[in-house]
Amino acid sequence: MSEIYELRVNGVDYPVTADANRNLSGVLRDELGLTGTKEGCDDCECGACMVLLDGQPINSCSYLAAQAQGREISTVEGLMDRDEMHPLQTNILECGGVQCGFCTPGMLMSAHALLERTPEPSLEEIKVGLSGNLCRCTGYGTIFEAVAAASKVEKVEP
Amino acid sequence: MSFVIATSVEEALAALANGASPIAGGTDLVVGARHGKFELPPELVAIDRIEALATIEIGADSMRIGSGVTHATLMADPAIVGSYTAVADAAALVGSPATRNVGTIGGNIMNASPAMDTGAPLVVLGASVELARVGSSRVVPIGDLWSGPGQTTASADELCTAVLVPSRPAASGTAYVRLEYRRAMEIAVVGAAAAVELADDGSISAVAVALSAVAPTIISIEIEPADVERGSVAEAASQQCSPITDLRASDRYRRHCVGVIASRAVDAAARRAAGESIAVPVNRALGIGAA
Q1: Which residue of A has its CA nearest to B182?
Q2: Residue A129: its chain B contacts at CB < 8 A?
Q3: Which residue in chain B is spatially nearest to A52 when comparing CA positions?
Q4: What tens digit of pLDDT does each residue of B158-209 get?
Q5: Is residue B199 domain-resident?
Q6: Is A62 on the interface with B (CB under 8 A)?
Q7: Closest CA to A32 of A68, A51, A7
Q8: Which residues of A touch B101 (CB under 8 A)?
Q9: How many CB pairs under 8 A join A and B?
Q10: Pure H helices in chain B
Q11: Does residue B26 belong to the interface with chain A, where contact is any CB pair within 8 Å?
Q12: What is the pLDDT of residues A101-147, one digit of tens each?
């Protein structure tokens, strides 16, 4: 039987009608059209599906969408400020941290949560913060560089 | 398929009495169901928004850790890190930040995997588990909770509401060490928790060791302070386990390595008991897991 509920994604309330066993990444992609979030392993291993729930990273492939109602969901689509890319996005491009790009949305969301919590992380803290995200292209070094560079961008008060 | 979000323990227990299954972070339940290990239960009650389950209460002679406390909280909470360091060591090794943000101590122990990380620390700490159902609750020693891989002695209408851990003596220390092939998204190849108490002269007056991933459940081994002095912790651990061969390791490798890991856990617990500060998780200080 379908459940009817609302999901708040990037500050927007979306009505959802979906079976209770649907996972969050599936509902974000197939029902709400937010295809920035990727589905890789569907087994909580790779982190391509990483979104933030009340600011904390979760694997949306293995999280029931219905369980996210009433919470703030943040996806990669919400990182940009109108036409302005987020410092994490500009830096991951400049540092060469994007090759095939499949891991990038998940990497960005884990990095975003890390910098919100730890504005100037050490390399070890960056590694731990991204430890749930696999990348098969870059070897990670350029991604770590990008996060470190983004952490040094002067924060502009809104 | 129905899904209810409970906001009180009473509401959750009523749902369980009507046949629903509890879900907290879903890091075992949803992953297992999507992987085809089992079907998702047809009726679910979410317990992750019950505030009463997410609290840590420090009592006169024990600590009450709500079953909904996450691994992220366990690894950083000053009272846990200070008094029950092995629990923090274990929580810090679970999965990734995403797993630790939603995975809970109650879920970890009720999932009853013999490779769980928080189980062995709770055994050496002498913890008990509070199981509630509509109208009643009971407390069982944690060693009596597990009856086999993925199986507990709790009935389907019982909810794990808390873990109760006795206070620690002054000159004591605990540690949880696990063998891992990588530093994240890993499951224990083998693991060992140790609790050590020191006498006034600095000698070991009490020791307890429990092992992960070398038997159908977490096991406590028979060990005396004299075994530590003789250097026979590894031998005791290797002799008393009954490991299997699977994807992660052979039975022979597990039997050998659990001895090494157990003696390192006892050593780290003894160093902490003597006042040495070893950061959580102790695995990093010991250099275990590829860089």
Answers
A1: A131
A2: 97
A3: B98
A4: 999 999 999 999 999 999 999 999 989 999 999 999 999 999 999 999 999 9
A5: yes
A6: yes
A7: A7
A8: 53, 56-58
A9: 85
A10: 9-17, 29-34, 71-76, 78-83, 85-93, 97-102, 105-111, 119-124, 225-230, 233-240, 251-273, 282-285
A11: yes
A12: 999 999 999 999 999 999 999 999 999 999 999 999 999 999 999 99
- With a threshold of 0.90, tell me whether the complex ipTM lies above it: yes
Interface contact flag, A20 B27, Cβ < 8 Å? no
B73 touches chain A (CB under 8 A): no
Helix or strand or coil: residue B204? strand
What is the DSSP code (8-state) at residue B144?
G
Q: By the CB < 8 Å criterion, does A132 face chain B?
A: yes
Q: Is residue A131 within 8 Å of residue B289, measured between CB atoms?
A: no
Total domains in chain B come to 1
**Cα separation values, B66 from B52, B58, B70, B162, B231, Å:** 7, 11, 9, 4, 38
Q: B3 and A67 in contact by Cβ < 8 A?
A: yes
- A112 and A86 Cβ atoms separated by less than 8 Å: yes
pLDDT digits (tens, 9 = 90+) for B229-238: 999 999 999 9
**Interface contact B7, partner A, CB < 8 A:** no
Query: Is residue A156 domain-resident?
Result: no
Do A142 and A93 share a structural domain? yes
- Cβ within 8 Å, pair B30-A64: yes
Side-chain half-sphere CA neighbours of A114 within 13 A: 31
Contacts of B247 in chain A (CB under 8 A): none
CB contact under 8 A, B1 and A19: yes
Maximal C-alpha separation, chain B:
62
pLDDT at residue B1, as a whole number? 83
Please indicate, yes or no, if residue B250 is contained in any of the structural domains: yes
B112, two tokens? 């009853």
Task: Kindly determine whether residue A132 and residue B99, on different chains, have CB atoms separated by under 8 Å.
Answer: yes
Regarding whether A74 and A33 lie in a shared domain, the answer is yes
Tens digits of residue pLDDT in A72-106: 999 999 999 999 999 999 999 999 999 999 999 99
**Which domain range does residue A48 map to?**
2-78
